[in-house]
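Retro notes
What went well: the complex prediction finally ran end to end.
Inputs used:
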Amino acid sequence: EAGVAQSPRYKIIEKRQSVAFWCNPISGHATLYWYQQILGQGPKLLIQFQNNGVVDDSQLPKDRFSAERLKGVDSTLKIQPAKLEDSAVYLCASRPQGGTYEQYFGPGTRLTVT
Amino acid sequence: GEDVEQSLFLSVREGDSSVINCTYTDSSSTYLYWYKQEPGAGLQLLTYIFSNMDMKQDQRLTVLLNKKDKHLSLRIADTQTGDSAIYFCAEIPQTGANNLFFGTGTRLTVIP
């Protein structure tokens, strides 16, 4: 079974530029998450999707971050405009329906804002 | 759920046991998890424990849960150099949409 795929793996941009990340969850997983992991910290949830609907985006800085999952499969996370403090690893995770709620993580995209 | 606490660093010698500790926040959390993160990689689920259990053993891994003190630990027997990584505990508090709250992570260094 293929895991969660993310691209790009690395991205360097200047502040005030925009950037987009892509995630393809494990096939059949209805729930998809985006996390931000700042160096030296644990991941923090940005947004949760159930199919193509948003379940929780309370921690998403909506003035600059947006995310979508139009067909309930792939998802994109966008930052516009980026700030220095957005430098982090952006992790995508998915989980199947029910069970013990464990999430399966992709390798992440490391963003550096200069 | 935002204050799941872990010590930052742990060093052990190869072959010894490692014990990584975590204090979580919500006594009503139903599941508690341990994830492993190797350099440049995403998080890998190691094991989980249901809140009605005190202990769970899975090969070299033993999870102990003390609900009264909201304390979770992960013991790795016969620690190997390949176990060097950052270990995160995580809880799902009763409030919210079954989302994970992670600790700060413990960096385990195994000395050959």
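What we learned: The CA atoms of residues 39 and 88 of chain A lie 6 Å apart.
What to try next: split runs per interface for comparison.
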